[in-house]
Design goal:
The chain is of the alpha/beta class. The chain has ten helices and 14 strands.
Amino acid sequence: MKKLATLALAMVLAGVLGKAALAAPPADTLAEVKKKGVLVAGVKDSLPPFGYIDEKSRTIVGYDIDFINAIAKKLGVKAELKPVTSASRMPQLQEGNIDIIAATMTKNPERAKQIDFSHTYFFTGQKFITKKGAVRSLKDLEGKKIGTAKGSTSEQNVKKAIPSSTVLSFDDYPQAFLALQQGKVAAVTTDEAILAGILAKAPNKAQFEIPNLQISDEPYGLGMRKGDKNFVDFVNKTILEMEKSGEAKKIFEKWFGPTTQFHLQRNFKITADK
């Protein structure tokens, strides 16, 4: 009887482990996405103009979303958007809940050990939002509280650039900006393109500015699972084609052109990384 019970338990455990193995992320995302007919992307949903909820359509729109839609179209599948934060996006990818990250994600060596990146599809630099006239140099932020988002490269960069500062990490950048408005921090730091989006939407934006103080370069990549070569190659080929056809520039102009709230110069082209 004891032997039978042990055998039954072993069979149950084998079944559970078998199901766990089935739930693992696909080894070939490209084939799996084509098979299921849906590309699931992790995106921001409160960060204009990269990813935010449009008030009229109640759908997520933005620069990152246009790239995902273009990749999904090339694949001949639908795009499904899942909101992620800076801290949750890599775990969501690695656990197989999403197929790709398109969420203002800076490529760096530390992250590249854990996931694979596409070629750079957006390029910016890390700066600050401060009260107008309050900050002229990095010296003015020494010993001050500076807000940013958890799990972002901005956290590490500002600690290196201003070691005497106290970095307060929030769930997202709008929360950090609220802390600035309330006088709880002296500045908010992240990539200039994100800061421009936050400031453009602020009702009291005349009280704030982005001083010309850059502390790092920030190349954005689309994130995919480590070793997922077929999918990475497909995404890279697609965004290089988008650059060649002018579609990538058109998307930039749509969100950052001179007639937009977020006007920036396009000082990059999508090229194959060396």
